């Protein structure tokens, strides 16, 4: 960053401090919160000066461990580094709570108290509109913005005890999203090449300056967090070899990593296996278990292609029929699914080549009820985060979940549509950390399964309200 930009930032911060508006966060050790939540691995493989190192890293001096960790991160591609340093919404939520409690305990402001709670979460993106840059946690009074990346000076980027978030000045339609590039640096994004500033001025997407990106540096990561992050994937970096076979190297990776190589059927078992536990149940909402816990419609019931969307809609209809004993909706899975496939094609919601349109999913759901002579439910589309899903499921609504991840797909399900009807929130006895899982009818199994919320925070869902 040049001197002019640095001077402007210093001036901006000074003005905010004296005006009582949003201010950047104090330097508090929240990276340690992230570090304690990452996957713990007792053994992994690394390298030093081109020589293969296989052994217990705990036997190495701290300085050598840190050098290995830094070298590993520096050799990653930009995409791999972004993934390794990414902070999920669940972790960010916990950081926001800790920051709120710290500010209250220090008596820094008069507007926050034990009655202050997080009311809503808004996911914000970088200039591309595809990568999450930060999360805004809206409070009963004020808000807190937490970084989605670990390598920044302070994970709490911006906060205000009274003022409402700046982005509320935007007149956003349902499909628009917020671009966040640093303190008070917000833009409205409608998906075009042009972004709208808070002032109302327009600027081309590829011409905006990102203060947040310019401040990023691996040196901002604490030593403990750096070591844990570097060992997350259990990968080997060979400075002087193209490939190698190491006895026992894959031992630590032999089981399914979180949400990638296999379905999740037991949340506590999954959490204890991959995260610092032991975990126990903390909270849950489940209003549809009798209708969706088993006997769900599966894609294999009929011969079709890319029909996860029609299957998800069929499962919503089936659950409604069972709860209300509504004979207008057929009980036959085959009849119901074939009807949804035909309806989707006729109305342009679904086609066998491309699957179901995310944008048309709400209309698809409503048309599915109308075709059976049933009043269509209310539908609204939301970002997937804990705050939103907790409200939806606590209120007894269903979630038509679109696993998309910017086109890359879910680690296990790929690009897939499912129905979520419950959640389970676990808490670790050792770290106090939370893990949240959505219980779903996945269209592959007649029995319910789970997805880790952290694997879906880049996605959206249609809330179905009867």
Spans of at least 5 consecutive residues with low confidence: 1-29, 35-60, 231-257
The main β sheet shows up as: 8 strands, mixed
Spatial strand arrangement across the major sheet = 6-5-4-3-7-8-9-10
* Mean pLDDT figure: 77
Class derived from helix and strand content: alpha+beta
Name given to the CATH homologous superfamily of the largest domain: Cysteine proteinases
Q: How many helices in DSSP terms? A: 13
- The CATH topology annotation of the largest domain reads as Cathepsin B, Chain A
* Shape category: globular
Structural summary, described in words:
The chain has 466 residues and is an alpha+beta fold. Helix content is 29%, strand content 23%. It contains 13 helices and 19 strands. The chain has an eight-stranded mixed β-sheet with strand order 6-5-4-3-7-8-9-10, covered by helices on one side. Strands 11, 14, 15, 16, 17, 18 and 19 form a seven-stranded antiparallel β-sheet that branches. A hairpin with a 3-residue loop joins strand 12 and strand 13 (355-356). It starts with a helix and ends with a strand.
Summarize the model shown.
The protein is of the alpha+beta class and 466 residues long.
Task: Summarize the SSE layout with pairings.
Layout: H1 3-19, H2 31-37, E1 44-48, E2 51-55, H3 62-74, H4 78-84, H5 89-105, E3 118-125, E4 132-139, E5 143-147, E6 156-160, E7 177-180, E8 186-189, E9 194-197, E10 202-204, H6 211-215, H7 223-230, H8 267-274, E11 279-286, H9 289-292, H10 308-324, H11 333-346, E12 350-351, E13 355-356, H12 361-370, E14 378-383, H13 386-394, E15 398-403, E16 416-428, E17 434-441, E18 449-452, E19 460-465
Parallel strand pairs: 3-7
Antiparallel strand pairs: 1-2, 3-4, 4-5, 5-6, 7-8, 8-9, 9-10, 11-16, 12-13, 14-19, 15-16, 15-19, 16-17, 17-18
């Amino acid at each position: 960053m040049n001197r002019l930009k640095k001077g402007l930032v210093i001036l901006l911060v000074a003005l905010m401090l004296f005006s009582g508006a949003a201010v950047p966060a104090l330097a508090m050790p929240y990276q340690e919160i992230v570090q304690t939540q990452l996957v713990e691995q007792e053994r992994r493989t690394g390298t030093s000066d081109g020589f293969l190192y296989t052994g217990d890293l705990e036997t190495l001096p701290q300085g050598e461990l840190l050098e290995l960790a830094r070298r590993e991160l520096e050799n990653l591609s930009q995409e791999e580094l972004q993934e390794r340093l990414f902070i999920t919404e669940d972790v960010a939520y916990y950081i926001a709570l800790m920051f709120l409690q710290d500010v209250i305990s220090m008596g820094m402001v008069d507007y926050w108290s034990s009655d202050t709670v997080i009311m809503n979460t808004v996911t914000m993106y970088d200039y591309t509109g595809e990568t999450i840059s930060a999360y805004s946690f809206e409070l009963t009074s004020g808000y807190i913005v937490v970084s989605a990346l670990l390598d920044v000076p302070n994970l709490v980027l911006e906060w205000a005890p009274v003022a409402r978030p700046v982005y509320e000045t935007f007149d956003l339609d349902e499909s628009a999203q917020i671009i966040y590039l640093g303190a008070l640096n917000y833009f409205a994004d409608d998906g075009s090449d042009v972004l709208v500033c808070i002032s109302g001025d327009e600027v081309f997407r590829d011409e905006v300056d990102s203060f947040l990106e310019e401040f990023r540096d691996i040196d901002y990561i604490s030593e403990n967090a750096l070591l844990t992050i570097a060992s997350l994937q259990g990968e080997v970096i060979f400075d002087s070899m193209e490939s190698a076979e190491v006895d026992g190297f894959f031992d630590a990776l032999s089981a399914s990593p979180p949400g990638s190589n296999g379905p999740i059927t037991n949340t506590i078992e999954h959490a204890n296996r991959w995260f610092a536990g032991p975990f126990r149940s903390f909270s849950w909402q489940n209003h549809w278990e009798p209708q969706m816990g088993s006997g769900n419609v599966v894609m294999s019931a009929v011969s079709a292609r890319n029909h996860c969307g029609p299957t998800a809609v069929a499962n919503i209809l089936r659950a409604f029929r069972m709860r209300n004993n509504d004979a207008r909706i057929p009980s036959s899975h085959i009849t119901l699914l074939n009807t949804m496939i035909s309806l989707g094609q006729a109305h342009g919601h679904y086609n066998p080549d491309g699957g179901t349109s995310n944008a048309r999913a709400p209309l698809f759901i409503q048309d599915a009820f109308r075709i059976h002579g049933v009043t269509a439910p209310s539908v609204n589309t939301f970002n997937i985060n804990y705050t939103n899903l907790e409200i939806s499921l606590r209120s007894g609504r269903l979630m038509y979940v679109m696993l998309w991840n910017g086109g890359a797909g879910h680690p296990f399900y790929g690009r897939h549509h499912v129905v979520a009807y419950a959640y389970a929130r676990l808490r670790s006895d050792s770290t106090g950390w939370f893990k949240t899982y959505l219980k779903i009818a996945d269209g592959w199994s007649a029995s319910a399964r789970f997805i880790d919320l952290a694997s879906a925070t880049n996605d959206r869902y249609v809330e179905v309200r009867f």
